[in-house]
Design a protein that fits this description.
It contains six helices and five strands; from the N terminus they run βββααβααααβ. It is of the alpha+beta class and 185 residues long. The chain has one domain. It has a five-stranded antiparallel β-sheet with strand order 4-3-2-1-5. The N and C termini lie far apart (46 Å).
Length: 185
Amino acid sequence: MLVVFAHSTTGSTVATLHRADGVILQLPGYDRKYRVPHDLAHFATERTFEMSGGVFGSIAAGAVFSNMRVLSGRPRHDAALRSKRVLDAHKESLSLAEVIAGMVHHAVETGIPEQAPALARKAWESRGAGDPPWTDEQVAEAVRLLSELAADFEAQGQVRATWPDHLIAPTPPARGIRRGRRGRT
């Protein structure tokens, strides 16, 4: 999935997502006060941590968040139900993505990248879930990638990035629908 992060007319950022099914979506950002777009932090963090169930993997699988809109293409006949299934199935991953992307974003935005691993551990510990499912090196790599993307964004006013196909969230099957042929007696 191609993702283009750019400045919007409101002074914030907007991500335009070109999904493999031909649907083009717009995801507005609510980050006018930040130098580094928050959704760019999600992209860098989720990609580094290989989080298929985060924001971008879920969108690639067919999820549409309430603040998004379809720009072009023809959504599936069951797009709303598919979106709900994907979002429901990945609630925990989306929550985790928000926590860790927030820490990576904060570290880059405030110019304290060396503190990111400690911030990420502290955020994870606040969830009371034992050891974090990532290494300090992964956090540092997410900070490095976000710093690089943020520099490109500042210099060019936009960033074009590709979300890998292997990080598309699994889509749970629809319930109550029988597939295949009925047996003959």
